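During the second year of the project, the team shifted from modelling isolated chains to modelling whole assemblies. The rationale, set out in the original proposal, was that interfaces cannot be judged from single-chain predictions alone. As a representative example for this report, we include one of the complexes processed in the last quarter. Its constituent sequences, exactly as entered into the pipeline, are reproduced here:
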Amino acid sequence: MQRTKVKDLLTGAGEGQDVLLKGWVRTKRGNKYVTFIAVNDGSTINNLQVVANADAFSEEVLKDVTTGAAIAVTGELVASQGKGQAFEVQAKSIEVLGKADPEAYPLQKKAHSLEFLREIAHLRFRTNTFGAVFRVRNAMAFAVHKFFNEKGFVYMHTPIITASDAEGAGEMFKVTTLDLDNPPRTEEGHINFNEDFFGRATNLTVSGQMEGEVAAMAFSDIYTFGPTFRAENSNTTRHLAEFWMIEPEMAFYDLKMNADLAEEFIKYIIRHALEHNREDIEFLAQRLAEEDKAKPQNERQEMTLIEKLELVVNNEFERVTYTEAIDILLNSNHYKKKKFQYDVSWGIDLQSEHERYLVEKHFKKPVIVTDYPKDIKAFYMRLNDDGKTVAAMDILAPGIGEIVGGSQREERMDILVERMKMVGIDPEEMWWFLDTRRFGGCPHAGFGLGFERVVQFVTGMGNIRDVIPFPRTPQNAEF
Ligand code: ATP
Ligand code: MG
Ligand code: MG
Ligand code: MG
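Output from the structure prediction step:
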């Protein structure tokens, strides 16, 4: 007999017939006449109830059917008389495929803290919360490809091992094949990377943008979606050392078209999750609501998670320039009452407290901030006519802060080379990047969206470590 997944059984597929299901036991309860076993196989948040009558299954047979055990069950799929599920399986055979010692298995019935579950990241997939989070993540990843392919973008695989530091932030992991206990040295005593397998110093990519830009100069519209690495030693709830970034790059786009695309894209993947993973998101919303009940009145959320998401997909994002954003902050009561930790003046990089004020207190919706001072943004962003600002945009989301960083790119060779020199980049080394300006350069734009930050937004998870299956953070790479 072929196995049917729980998700399909719960829709009544095969009602009145014998079915085979396999999965892990969540709970077992009952009395001397009947035992109810809740089985989950990861296909849905819901469990399938298996009913084992005492006349067919002795206690001896059922003793290894404990929480966490893997079992295979055959039986008839029937309409359930009990509350909570429409269908259940009347068991004819139960086989324990893998036992789970109740004394040792950590995921017993009681609720566990997210901190504890992070320590057993390999088992946390078996909880309702993480089952829901990673099914939502999966749906959103699928929606990323769907969105761009429907628009005719080409999925371009940019390299993981690179020589360029697109962000110039110096947050790169080195990649080397040299024996670092005994490395070859130059005459000056530096490690001689010329003898490395790659023949030079290389890093794990911090962004696929530059490679994406050169590909867009042939395909018009491309996107990358892959792992990105930043050796930032920051222990925040928004940063990982390894995260996934979506980076579209479009020829013949200006900043406004770039912002329009980003807004449409964000709404699309959120809407997709709401449509395809409704039950998972409802479960996560319920989880947040429970958490909220424990908080004092004034700290509680004004809206449920679902209301928040629907508000975002159904309304236009606010758009302001950096200069307007600074004015809003300077004129706020928050500023006048000296409630910001960091001072505000034109030219500062917005701190997360400033971003959160704009999004959560002032506009109460996602905000696209454009035209930042050139000195706080990367060299490749297009210089505006005022000579002081660049055609940059950041998208800020409630509860999260920055989810997107993007810009129109500098296509003018002379200005680009001058900006490179100013930040200490040798234009010779970037010959391949500059070639696309030299030969048929054109206005173009793109952005980078941190995938985990959007998954955080949709799932309502407070810590970014809880939306990536195997988080990589400082001091954390157990497996
Ligand atoms: P932040 O200000 O939050 O550190 P950033 O400005 O350094 O972000 P960008 O270089 O603009 O980041 O990268 C584009 C996007 O990638 C960001 O908007 C964010 O969504 C995401 N991102 C950046 N760094 C991280 C990280 N360490 N972990 C997870 N996502 C990240
Ligand atoms: Mg950063
Ligand atoms: Mg930033
Ligand atoms: Mg940024």
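The mean pLDDT is 94. The CA atoms of residues 211 and 303 lie 41 Å apart.
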